[in-house]
Design brief:
- Helix 1 packs across helix 2, helix 1 crosses helix 4 and helix 2 packs across helix 3.
- This protein is α+β, with helices and mostly antiparallel strands and about 190 residues long.
- The strands form 4 sheets. Strands 1-2 form a two-stranded antiparallel sheet.
- It is built from 5 helices and 8 strands, in the order ββαααββαββββα.
- About 35% of the residues lie in helices and about 20% in strands.
- The longest helix is centred in the middle third of the chain and has 22 residues.
- It has a domain of about 100 residues: Arc Repressor Mutant, subunit A.
C-alpha cells in the first residue's frame, strides 16, 4: 500500500466554516464556465445546492462573491466579483502551500507517513477511559521537551518576554493525535 496523507481544507471564522473545498471548486468552475448551472454539474452538486452555498458564504463574508445575470434571449451567466477572484486565489494558494509541505522529505514524521506537525512530545499513558463511542486518554510527558513558538515581535514586546521568564505555552490544535511504534514483526519462513 502507498498511503498518502489527505486533508480537507476549509476557511472558517471562529468555529463556523465559511468556505470549504466544494465551495472553492464551485467558484473555480464558475470562473471557467461563466455558468452557475454548468459549474454545479461539474462540481457534482445540484443547482439548488450551488445557489444555497453561494448565498451562505456571501452572507457570512458580508460581500458579493458571485455576480449573476438573468437568462433570456441573450442568455444568463455567472462571474466572480473581484472579491470572489481574490477569495478563490487565497484558498488555492493555501491549498498549494499545504500540498507542497506534505511533499517535502523533511516533513516525514515516520517512514510510512508524512507529517508537518512539529508539536510532538513523548508521553506515557496514565489512564484510559472508554466511553460508548470515544475514549479519553490521559498522558504524562516522560522526557524533557523543548517547544518553539513563532510569534510577532509586537507580541514579544507587549508581553515583555525575556530569557528566564516562566510562561504558559498554549498549543493551539483541534485534536491531540497518538502514535505508537509497532514492534518488528517476526518472520516465519
Amino acid at each position: 500500500m502507498n498511503l498518502q496523507p489527505a486533508f480537507h481544507l476549509s476557511l472558517a471564522e471562529g468555529k463556523q466554516v465559511v468556505l470549504d473545498q466544494t465551495d472553492a471548486l464551485l467558484l473555480r468552475r464558475i470562473s471557467e464556465t461563466s455558468s452557475l448551472t454548468e459549474a454545479a454539474k461539474l462540481t457534482g452538486i445540484s443547482y439548488r445546492n450551488a445557489w444555497d452555498r453561494i448565498q451562505s458564504f456571501e452572507k457570512s463574508l458580508g460581500t458579493k462573491i458571485v455576480e449573476t445575470k438573468v437568462g433570456g434571449a441573450t442568455g444568463g451567466g455567472a462571474t466572480l466579483t473581484p472579491e470572489g477572484d481574490s477569495l478563490l486565489h487565497d484558498f488555492r494558494k493555501v491549498r498549494k502551500y499545504l500540498f507542497e509541505a506534505l511533499g517535502e522529505p523533511e516533513n516525514m514524521g515516520h517512514a510510512s507517513f508524512k507529517l508537518s506537525a512539529r508539536n510532538r512530545l513523548r508521553v506515557r499513558i496514565t489512564n484510559v477511559h472508554k466511553g460508548e463511542v470515544t475514549a479519553a486518554i490521559k498522558m504524562k510527558v516522560t522526557v524533557p521537551a523543548e517547544l518553539t513558538s513563532i510569534i510577532s515581535r509586537e507580541a514579544v514586546d507587549d508581553l515583555d518576554l525575556k530569557e528566564g521568564d516562566e510562561v504558559v505555552a498554549i498549543v493551539k490544535s483541534t485534536e491531540v493525535l497518538i502514535a505508537k511504534e509497532q514492534a518488528a514483526r517476526k518472520r516465519t519462513d
